[in-house]
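Handout, section B. The chain below has 572 residues.
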Amino acid sequence: MADDYRHVRERCGYYPMEEGCIFSLTGKDTFAFLQTQSTNDALNLERGAGLDNAIVDRKGKLIANFSLHRDGGDSALALIEKCQKDNFQNHLETFHFREDIVISPLNDRLLAMQGPLSRLALESLCDPGAPIPEKPNQVERIPIAGKTAILINKSFTGEEGFILGVRETEWNSLIEALQRIPEDLRPALVSKETWEVLRIEAGILRMGKDMDGKNVLPETGLEHTSVSYNKGCYIGQEVIARIRTYGAPNFAMMGLILEGGPLPPPHSDILLKDKKIGSTRSGTLSPYLGKNIVLAYIQKDYRSPDTDLEVTLAGSPARVRTCLLPFYQTKTRQDHARRLYEEALTLYKQEENLDQPIGLLREAIALDSKYAAAYEALGVFLSKQDKLDEAISLMKRLVEIDPTEIMAHSNLSIYYMKQGRIEDAENEKAEATAIQFEKAITEKMNQRKQQGLEEQQRQERERKIGMFKEVLEIDPGDPVANFGLGSIFLETGRYEEALHPLQIVIEQNRDYSAAYLLLGKTWEKLQNPEEAVKTFKTGIATASRKGDLMPLKEMQNRMVALTREHPQLASK
């Protein structure tokens, strides 16, 4: 299981998704019909694009959640769990009258490929030139060994990932083709148990395990990705919009990290003294955190993240810490490329053999084709092995990617000199010098442009300050004018002046999450970390109740940084 987990987190793993299926939806009314029946904006999907979506009843309770992908002009694909298949189809057919739409499940089998090397593995698996979807939920039809497969960019693990759909008769051929992928890219089969661990770390909910038809959609957290608040009417819209306008659901999904103790069974009550404040769902031991983690519905007064609670869990005393989902912080291809680069440099310092560092740098460049530092290091290592032709080819490739990369020309000059190609070396040295001069001139011009832009912005800020002050002369408590004035003063370094209007906003409106964020930042700038932490804590609790994720996450990050810098504040 540890090897399976490491393959997905560091390389690539595959898993037969027996629990998933795909629906085909075709006809000229497909997207207009879905617009009235689902929570997200299906009508404006472009060819090849996709989005997370859901269907709810008139009370806003969940019927099905799925991802929708525009496969062609009037055709769509819906990726959904098999256990939701009947609910999905029955609901749509119930409201399907004269619309030109055909809704039918495909018999395709699904295979998930997940991990930082999954794109490279796919490129090796597919026929040359096959289009690999770049963005989440994008879909393409791709050729594999002369057969056409559905390919969806979709992560179920927190890593970059894809879902392949092939006909039942082509399944064995697909598995055999996976084994022909070069060994350094070949995905490993991931066990069902490992897949479950990865799913929970990624904060992905399963119907029947973590949610069901009794849940109002905002309780699950799916509304953050599956709801458009700007589209036209759909069944259940009024309830979901009302919850957003007037607050947050009483109970909502978030993460719990257990500080010791066994995993509780699903549906265990979470008691604070004698009060029920939540209920558990899926849980697992997280290799990422080294602790047990649980998905749980928590009452809104206790949803502030990074809060330690002494509770009774499954009848036993336990200490838990609240956590925003996902537990696992997603890493980009660039993040993984950087990790490989740093690992290569560490190995280089530890041993004389350069083969392994060179292999790691090649992977880093494959993940991030514009990673100049990896190109440079690989060129240096290759030159140390007297592989100058390859090092030169590598630097030329970097020049193609970025003609202004000075180090590429400088290294080419060095490598040509080692080969005795004096004229080529001098030309590259001259090119590097010319680029350096051009960059200096461009930087100077940009500075002048920036100065002009800053003057324009200064004049605009002064105009707004005057406007806000005029409003405040009429109504000193106006929240919009006070917030605007406070934000401008903070932005321009007038921190003492920013305090009063921001404090007025909070006094007048205790639920103004963004005002807590700006006020906390102001206290930081005034070198008062104690007041900053106090403000952020109150703001985090407010934003948690309202479901204001953007200010909540920023306040959480700033408070964590402050308490690390000032440990004595952690307990205040």
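Note. The first strand starts at residue 13 and ends at 16. Compare this with the example in section A.
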